[in-house]
Specification:
The chain has 450 residues and is α/β, with parallel strands linked by helices. An 8-stranded mixed sheet has the order 3-2-1-4-7-6-8-5, with helices on both faces. Strand 2, helix 6 and strand 3 form a beta-alpha-beta unit. Helix 11 packs parallel to helix 12, helix 12 crosses helix 13 and helix 14 packs antiparallel against helix 15. It is globular. The two termini are 38 Å apart.
């Protein structure tokens, strides 16, 4: 809470004081700020609408399953786990991978790379999996304190031509591996699949997050991949050419080692693609506090990636200008927008204290920015609904409407997380807080909690 107060004091309070001082002797400055803030919202709205329009068509690799399945080579699946947190679900995940994927057992290598501060009973159960029909290794990574270290340790044992990276709660669909391998046959090196929430009905919060994930993977990721032939490896349900992954590796010093590896792979000349037909289900956190900790780590990790790679992206001799601009939007604009979006409220307060009225509808440009900003959320929700796997469920259908009308307040909440992340990074606070796992009620192996 202290970080939130300090962040709003810096990003909201100081601008109010500035507007009061400057606006008292230069009234036009408030109008300039008004147009600048409107432009900031316009940029974000236009990108959202662009992604929405582009994402509506489906995209799959052109080769058929019949052409690909016989050609699937040895595949390594690396599952990363922190067992005190995931001890109740890891056995189910391993069993699902060993029996639920449409890959011959002799072409599948499964490595569970985990760290734990103490010996757990589940480790004895994992040892019994050595008798599975697939090659299975339970690798306890001594001294590891991160997912990146677990993955790096497992890579030394990886023998497959393609390596799949999964979190401990992920259950890929049977055709996931062959679907991803089609892209490798067409020259891509990293394939990011679609992550869907299977415990949607657990709480009201998981229902909302399920739709957010559908938007994230079906609209945002799909839109940029279709438009610019670029993608982001999101840490799980990712399929790498093993030689590329071994060269790039994971940096344990980064809070979002997945985003960091994505950019390093792109800068190294590897090709990344997003395919929303490659589906894996996961468990969303059903409560606000774990969500806050998770998103805070993501936001701070993205800030670290921005500081490390933004200049290198612009210096790259191979990336196109549109790709550089889009990644600037994903990185630098991501860090700037939370501050800019808050200025509308700072401006309102300062104008009120100065007894200055703001003519919100007195200029065509401001009308256009307002309309597009208000349109972006419902448009994205509509595209999300069209692409969602479970859109016909009556008990969830109304949540698309809730998602549409709550886009702006939810964005403000995420912007608050981003501002706190900036404060933490400036103060050198980089503590890793593990996201607590919950098993959903009922059958956890069911597809999409049908």
């Amino acid at each position: 809470m202290l970080y939130v107060v300090v962040a709003y004091g810096v990003f909201f309070g100081l601008p109010v004081l500035t507007y009061l001082l400057v606006g008292s002797w230069w009234p036009a400055s408030l109008t300039i700020v008004h147009f600048a803030v409107a432009t900031a919202y316009l940029v974000t709205a236009v990108v959202m609408l662009f992604e929405t329009a582009v994402a509506l068509p489906r995209r799959k690799a052109t080769l058929s399953h019949e052409d690909v399945l016989p050609r699937v080579p040895l595949v390594t699946v690396i599952v990363s786990a922190y067992l005190p947190n995931e001890r109740d679900l890891i056995a189910e995940t391993i069993l699902h991978l060993s029996t639920g994927l449409r890959v011959p057992s002799h072409r599948l290598q499964i490595i569970l790379a985990y760290n734990t501060p103490e010996h757990l009973p589940v480790e004895r159960e994992l040892e019994s999996f050595a008798g599975l029909s697939v090659s299975f290794t339970a690798l306890r990574v001594a001294g590891s304190r991160s997912k990146a270290e677990n993955v790096n340790a497992a890579l030394a044992l990886a023998e497959g031509e393609m390596t799949v990276l999964l979190d401990a709660d992920h259950l890929p669909e049977p055709d996931a591996i062959e679907s991803a391998y089609r892209w490798l046959l067409q020259g891509y090196d990293v394939v990011q699949g679609r992550c869907t929430v299977r415990n949607q009905r657990e709480t009201l919060f998981t229902r909302y997050l399920a739709i957010e994930f559908e938007h994230m993977y079906n609209v945002a990721h799909t839109g940029r991949s279709l438009a610019l032939d670029t993608a982001i490896f999101g840490g799980t349900n990712g399929y790498w050419r093993t030689s590329a992954l071994k060269r790039i590796g994971m940096d344990p010093h980064m809070l979002t080692e997945d985003i960091d590896s994505s950019i390093r792979a792109m800068l190294a000349g590897y090709r990344l693609v997003h395919d929303r037909s490659i589906i894996s289900s996961e468990l969303a956190t059903p409560r606000l506090r774990p969500w806050w900790n998770q998103r805070l780590r993501w936001a701070q990790g993205w800030l670290q990636v921005t500081l490390r790679h933004q200049s290198a992206i612009w210096r790259s001799p191979t990336l196109s200008v549109p790709t550089k601009l889009y990644w600037t939007y994903l990185l630098s604009w991501r860090e700037i927008f939370p501050f800019l979006s808050l200025q509308v409220f700072s401006l309102l307060l300062a104008s009120s204290l100065l007894d200055r009225s703001i003519d919100w509808l007195g200029h065509p440009y401001l009308i256009v920015t307002a309309v597009l900003t208000l349109l972006a959320g419902p448009a994205a929700a509509f595209a999300t609904y069209r692409a969602a796997l479970w859109r016909t469920r009556e008990d969830l259908r109304g949540w698309f409407v809730i998602f549409a009308v709550s886009t702006l307040p939810y964005v403000m909440l995420k912007n608050t997380v981003a501002m706190v992340a900036i404060m933490r990074e400036l103060l050198g606070e980089r503590t890793w807080r593990v996201t607590t796992r919950w098993q959903p009620a009922g059958n956890p192996t069911s597809r999409y909690s049908a």
